[in-house]
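Researcher: Let's do a round of design. I'm pasting the structure tokens now; please hold your answer until I've finished.
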């Protein structure tokens, strides 16, 4: 039975649309090309990469190595190296299920001692790379050399997620650009959720990654794709919805796929049946906001007084194209310098997204909560 899911990686059958993105990414990976994936948080990028692209890539190749590293909130060269090594170990462990692979591992890994153990729960072999040196910037090129060696015989895909978080680490962009250039037989996919920071990395001519790869942007899913998707998943709960209702849900959730799934799941859990008209959708939304109110209220207590003022103003005026505009500053009651710094800080933390239209609160449910709790005065 197909159901609504949120807050987790979606399987291929649970992903709504994304056919064009999947088709293009598949072609790039099969050609050992490069891609840069843009898109806000909760837009399904990682689900597509891990459960479709990476899975299909491994399945279609007789001999493959698929490496996935998450750089979310990395804070040093050593942290990057450690995560990269863990990702490589995990990828190699997948191949280590084949006896012939285990025998030949050391042929590809020249600068590390390979240790193979059995997982106590699954009994599957796990691989770890040991060495006499510290896990710092000196070992990162050696890890890339391992990938290059593997790629001579194995079809290789390297995926680096939340890539924008490397930008604060001195020298890392240049090092990674140099190492990735040497992977001429490997497909490389870089992705992230903070578009404005990714633009700094890939669109600035002075940066090492300028002009890198093919851009693939995860935009809003067309409403006509959501209609059959929702109808199919509401049906087991004896709920029906028409195009008008689907559009209303998409509008309320600002087309954020994860939030759409959350609201729809809440409706199916309500025990109701019958036709979902606009009034019922709004009633369910109000109940969902009330259910999340304790969590959101606690979240608000973590913000400073200035941050609260900026958030309330954003909730009322989003999208905000210019945080320094007179109208927005009047709403915040905070100085222009402090407002700009607060907006940048909240964006860095992932609480705000920056679209072409301006800054938005990332979680549309949180935005609705702010409006309902504090009213339209923003105070």
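Researcher: That's everything. Go ahead.
Model: Designed sequence:
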């Amino acid at each position: 039975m197909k159901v609504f899911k949120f807050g987790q990686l979606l399987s291929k059958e649970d992903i709504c649309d994304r056919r064009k993105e999947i088709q293009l990414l598949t072609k790039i990976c099969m050609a050992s090309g490069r891609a840069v994936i843009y898109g806000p948080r909760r837009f399904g990028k990682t689900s597509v990469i891990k459960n479709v692209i990476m899975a299909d890539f491994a399945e279609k190749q007789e001999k493959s190595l698929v490496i996935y590293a998450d750089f979310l909130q990395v804070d040093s060269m050593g942290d990057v190296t450690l995560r990269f090594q863990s990702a490589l170990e995990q990828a190699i462990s997948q191949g280590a299920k084949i006896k012939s692979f285990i025998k030949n591992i050391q042929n590809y890994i020249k600068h590390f001692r390979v240790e193979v153990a059995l997982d106590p729960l699954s009994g599957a072999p796990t691989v770890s790379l040991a060495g006499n040196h510290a896990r710092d910037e000196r070992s990162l090129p050696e890890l890339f050399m391992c990938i290059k060696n593997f790629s001579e015989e194995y079809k290789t895909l390297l995926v680096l997620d939340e890539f924008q978080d490397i930008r604060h680490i001195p020298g890392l962009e240049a090092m990674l650009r140099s190492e990735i250039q040497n992977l001429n037989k490997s497909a490389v996919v870089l992705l992230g959720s903070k578009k404005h920071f990714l633009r700094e990395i890939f669109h600035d001519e002075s940066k090492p990654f300028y002009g890198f790869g093919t851009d693939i942007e995860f935009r809003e899913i067309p409403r006509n794709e959501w209609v059959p998707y929702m109808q199919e998943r509401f049906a087991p709960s004896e709920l029906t919805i028409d195009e008008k209702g689907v559009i209303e849900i998409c509008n309320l959730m600002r087309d954020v796929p994860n939030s759409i799934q959350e609201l729809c799941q809440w409706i199916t859990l309500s025990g109701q049946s019958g036709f979902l008209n606009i009034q019922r959708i709004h009633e369910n939304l109000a109940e969902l906001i009330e259910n999340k109110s304790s969590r959101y209220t606690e979240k608000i207590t973590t913000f400073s007084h200035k941050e609260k003022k900026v958030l309330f103003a954003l909730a009322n005026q989003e999208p905000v194209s210019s945080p320094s505009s007179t109208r927005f500053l009047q709403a915040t009651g905070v100085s222009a310098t402090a407002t700009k710094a607060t907006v940048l800080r909240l964006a860095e933390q992932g609480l705000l997204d920056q679209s072409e239209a301006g800054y938005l609160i990332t979680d549309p449910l949180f935005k609705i909560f702010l409006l309902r709790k504090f009213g339209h005065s923003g105070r």
